[in-house]
Amino acid sequence: MARWDEILSLPVQSPPTLEFASSDLVWSKIEGWRDNIDRLALIPFARVDDFVRGESNNKECPTRFHVEARRRRTAKTSYKPKVDGILEYILYWCSFGPDDHRKGGIVRPSRSTYVPKNKPSGRPNTKRGCTCHFIVKRLIAEPSVALVIYNQDKHVDKKGSPCHGPQDKKAVGTRAMYAPYISEELRLRVLSLLHVGVSVETIMQRHNESVEKQGGPCNRDDLLTHRYVRRQERSIRRSTYELDEDDVVSISLWVESHQNNVFFYEDVSDSDPLVLGIQTEWQLQQMIQFGNCRLVAYHSEFGSNKLKYPVQTLVVFNSENKAIPVAWIITPRFASRGIHRWMRALYNRVRAKDPTWKLAGFVVDEPSADILAIREVFHCSILICFWRVRHAWHKNLMKRCSEMETRAEIAKKLGQAVNKVCKGPGSASALEDFTEDAAEFMDYFKAIWYPKLGTWARALETLPLASQETCAAMEFYHKQLKLRLLNEKDQSVYERADWLVNKLGNKVHSYFWLDEYSGKADFARYSKGEWLSGPTAWRKSLRIPDSHVNIEGQCAKVIGLKDQDKAHLVLNPGSEYAICDCGWSKMGNLCEHVFKAIKFCRDKGSVTPSMSMFQYSKALIKILNCSPFDSLVRDHAASLAVWVQMQLNGQIGPEKDQETVNLSPDNATSSQ
Description:
The protein is α+β, with helices and mostly antiparallel strands. 38% of the residues lie in helices and 15% in strands. The protein has six domains: 3-177, no CATH class; 184-238, no CATH class; 262-385 and 466-498 and 511-516, Nucleotidyltransferase, domain 5, CATH 3.30.420; 388-462; 537-608, no CATH class; 614-649, no CATH class. It has 21 helices and 17 strands.
């Protein structure tokens, strides 16, 4: 037992990168079977796939590892707990071995029926007798930990000579120089382009052009074949979402075949509805990369008027602050109270990949969200995004009021009422008073919003408001999802959950993957409405120069970047409740002309800071006035505020005097 005591005392290593190789681990040498010395390390079992991918992407000798042998105990098998007991045993072998199909090579007796082909296809030159392999054991004593035994880490044959890769001189000029399969990124690119309608011929033409431009093939991806792309296209064309006539059975079959893309699943029962959480490997990577120490936003109940099962989304924001969906949750509206279970499962999945991952804040767009459950799972601040309400008000103003002046007056009173509630001590009555002067808007507002005013007022009073940039990103994502998901001619499919799961996991996922693909412009001729992409309205506004803005009384004229011969009229400039005459604003969205007018007026000092900035300043001043024994918290808050101010200045320019937070405690006290 001394061996196992020594093994279990080793640290569990989990490098912070998305993938890691043997060079990223510290290996220990411990006496093994028959007095052999084993080279081993402990890693989280949930990260075994990350290790396999990282070890395969070895630049010195690119390859792939396949499962050569696997043994596992079934769930029903009874076993006696013991320190050296094994729940699962997996043998990974380099795909260039263990058999050797070269001339004079050794083939195992069980593979003696192999007959060389005249024209090698499928996996040419893949079996060259490589002895590189490692063993993964999942122990009964520590089920969450994987023991990796890596004794044969050199890519050589039984004679000790390099058998593939750049170091093998006999492999020069053959495919054995490269990995046996294309990379995961190229596979996703091919599948995504096929799902959105790009032809096989176009994909191969663009690929061959890029290879010629770089002077010939230099890795396995450059050897992409027409046959492979055609086979993927045929598979997509022949696939069907309806795996069974019964929708519930069809969903369960889909879950069984897509275990890697499901982080939570609860089947329909007498007491509980269907709950299905979908997250692909790419979405998980985006959540780790853009969610760590940043914001995650909750887009709730999309398609509740059309879909049998509304879609809930968690999104992160990339370097350009565009929303990227990192998880989709499908469940009936009345099942929203079970949010804690699937959030906990998602959090555990992310933390298994990166134990240091932590959120800076969680943004909700509904006051009915389970705030306590979110705080308990993610341990972070909660913000509320008002985009959904403002969007609905703006859209109905455009629909129910024909005159621009009337729209502007109502929108102005709406904005003043919301600001009054946010600054406090306001109440829901502040949102009711304005409607007496808006007869055309009265019926809609009373029918839809009167029952919700109390809930929203309490949320706005207790939760900080998300920034306008976040609102613009959420609006843009909502528009993208609507164009890409709800575009079926046969609307009867909206009643099936299996169609929804299939559409999200394939076509919709492909569009969002291509949004992050740098070479998307090469396929611009195939773009449709579903390809809607580009920067958000807030980002577009940063490109508009100040010379394109002209303030005239209670309105502003803003010249856009596309059509510089036309000036768009913005009423209530400086407010996010402004009304613009452009097409994007008429659909209820915040446009770049409104955002530009807001920034222009704030730079001139003619309007007050945004509500989110006001709440931030108020909270900071409260912390600065802590008692002396809490000076450490105060000093940390002051340094954090300076850092935040520097980040804001780097993006939108220095704030004016009325927006700058004075960090002096004396000034903070006097401001109260």
